[in-house]
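Following up on my earlier thread - several people asked me to post the actual chain instead of describing it. Fair enough. Here it is, all 119 residues.
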Amino acid sequence: MDSSNSNQSSFSRLVHICIVGHSYVMSLREFMCRHHSEQYHNLGFDRSRVVIHCLGVGSATDLPGDKCILHQLSEIIHIQPDIVYVHVGENDLRSFTVSFCSFQYALMLGNLFCLSTVT
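Reply from S.P.:
Thanks for posting it. Predicted structure:
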């Protein structure tokens, strides 16, 4: 196969983007569904090239607890996204230190990487 065919096939591959977070992401998903036939569905991206997935949990936190976004790892892995965008609000961080928060995000990224290479 020559390189021009290889480049063309890589551009035709569907890109999956996963937006993860709290109630703002839930609201975004609802907005996209309400405006399904308008330009806001799929955030205006051509669905034959890009698919946006919104995984939002009301009152979610980005750190350990009952509503931690880490509990969404299995859903994220199932989607197999090319890009994961984590929406973080300052209220999600509560009173933790920057180094603790950084460690938690590194742990989440490590889990995503490990789980995605297994499946």
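The longest helix spans residues 98-118. That should answer part of your original question.
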